Amino acid sequence: MNNTKYVFVTGGVTSSLGKGIIAASLAKLLQERGYSVTIQKLDPYINIDPGTLNPYEHGECYVTDDGAETDLDLGHYERFLNIPTSQANNVTTGRIYQSVIDKERRGEFLGKTVQVIPHITDEIKNRIQILGNTGNYDIVITEIGGTVGDIESLPYVEAVRQLEWDLGENNTIVIHLTLVPYLAAAGELKTKPTQHSVKMLMQSGVSPDILVCRSENEISDDIKRKLALFCNVKQKDVIQSLDAETIYDVPNLMLDEGLDSVVLEKLKLSDVNPPKMDKWNNFLSKHKNPKEFVEIGLIGKYVELHDSYKSITEAFIHAGSTHETKVNVRWIHSEELNPETIETELQGLNGILVAPGFGDRGIEGKIAAVQYARENNIPFLGICLGMQMAVIEFARNVLGLKDATSTEMNPETANPVINLMDEQKDITDKGGTMRLGAWDCEISTDSKVYEAYQNTLISERHRHRYEFNNDYKAQIEAAGMIATGVNPKTGLVEIVELPNHPWFVGVQYHPEYKSTVLTPHPLFVNFIKAALEQSKK
Ligand code: GLN
């Protein structure tokens, strides 16, 4: 039996209130007080994981070291806490049902009728306690996706109710995040939506211990008293969460409001050590007071929804802060790039990043962007599909293999410089079957990547089915594009570079997933450094 405490975060009134950021901010404060904390997200949808979801539906799919394809909130958790998450940190209804149904098929329910209560709720409770049972955490924060009152959230709320009962007083608390809207016509903040949403939660047998109220305006003591009275909490347990200039301000805002102290008091944990926020604040002050400016073009096909590239834009913020530099992202739709538009679209950029992606929509634009970066000596970072496009561009325009492409785009091509990995050839299922998670890569010392990592063996996260075709390696290297990183066991090319270019790096893996506030990713740091140098030319 260990003494892990559980904090549940539910959402009311509307979605998109930023439960993930509140959870991550609270976790940060508790961590900097010396507690070991992790955060888990329970998603009520039926997909097994977001890996099969279109980014327009759900934003970026984040990938963990152990190869889980997860909600983008896990990216926030890692960026805030600087510790890795895993398969256990993101669970969907699909996964819950799948394991219950698998057990049923194995006969594990011994002839019983399998039902939402107790079987689904038991499985949810197990999934919540898996992290606590590792013994690695003093506190597990579990964020329940969706909004209280949704049909699909009901089993989760019931599981929380039961766990509160199972684990007893002072071991669990519920934080309800809600919206307190300002009605301009009335000139007032309105508490009724919160009252209704708390009532809804209480109908399911769960009373919030703390209300975190998102609001555009200061919540007066009067309003707090009203919220407290009608929602059955103490006035000091009503915490306001005003719109912030950056998500990285939220831990300090929550500290000022005393959220961490209230949580510790309710869990009967000591609050004597104040959070040590100096490193965090050092990052923040450099982020907020930049001395330099660079503009990076982000070439992708989902640019209408910036959340599709969340980890990349956050990695720019971390790397920018390192150089006290504001990194402005120019969002460029790959479908809009063609020989006529390229000059106007890309002109003036200090760096070009070609983003990950799937399928052939927009790839000619990506290839054109690579060519522009290569020929105009603009610092270039290609990630996953972006690296593959760099190889294709080089094969076409330097080696003269005009029909070079990836077999993802044309399975019949005569020059498949990128082709399907052998291990993928017999796979037909789409979900969870890519080359996922952390793999090693050996780096040659004479390279831009070595300058960045200062290490010859690295481990980075992956999410792909196609790879650099080693049949073309000798030819490509002889023409000047060098494979500076390979998987030591399989020889799979992980990194390509152009030594005759100021900074041109393509990586098969996703460095963006491992960039955090306190450990900005070295490749992003050096990419921004190269962009800064470019800006001074
Ligand atoms: N579509 C490419 C592949 O599967 C690249 C994937 C990606 O960019 N994540 O290999």
UniProtKB/TrEMBL annotation:
The pathway to which it is assigned is: Pyrimidine metabolism; CTP biosynthesis via de novo pathway; CTP from UDP: step 2/2
Q: Which Gene3D superfamilies match?
A: 3.40.50.880, P-loop containing nucleotide triphosphate hydrolases (3.40.50.300)
The Gene Ontology terms for molecular function here are: CTP synthase activity
Chain segments carrying region Amidoligase domain: 1-269
Per its record, the protein catalyses:
UTP + NH4(+) + ATP = CTP + ADP + phosphate + 2 H(+); L-glutamine + H2O = L-glutamate + NH4(+); UTP + L-glutamine + ATP + H2O = CTP + L-glutamate + ADP + phosphate + 2 H(+)
* Binding-site positions, UTP: 15, 190-195, 226
Give the record's free-text account of how this protein's activity is regulated: Allosterically activated by GTP, when glutamine is the substrate; GTP has no effect on the reaction when ammonia is the substrate. The allosteric effector GTP functions by stabilizing the protein conformation that binds the tetrahedral intermediate(s) formed during glutamine hydrolysis. Inhibited by the product CTP, via allosteric rather than competitive inhibition.
Annotated residues for binding of Mg(2+) = 73, 143
Q: Record-annotated residues binding L-glutamine?
A: 56, 357, 385-388, 408, 465
EC numbers on record:
6.3.4.2
| Residue span, Glutamine amidotransferase domain | 305-529
The protein's enzyme class:
ligase
Q: Which residues bind ATP?
A: 16-21, 73, 244
Kindly identify the residues recorded as the active site: 384 (nucleophile), 510, 512
Q: State the family named in the UniProt similarity comment for this chain.
A: Belongs to the CTP synthase family.
Physiological role: Catalyzes the ATP-dependent amination of UTP to CTP with either L-glutamine or ammonia as the source of nitrogen. Regulates intracellular CTP levels through interactions with the four ribonucleotide triphosphates.
Q: What else is known?
A: CTPSs have evolved a hybrid strategy for distinguishing between UTP and CTP. The overlapping regions of the product feedback inhibitory and substrate sites recognize a common feature in both compounds, the triphosphate moiety. To differentiate isosteric substrate and product pyrimidine rings, an additional pocket far from the expected kinase/ligase catalytic site, specifically recognizes the cytosine and ribose portions of the product inhibitor.
Q: Name the chain's protein.
A: CTP synthase
Organism of origin is Tenacibaculum geojense
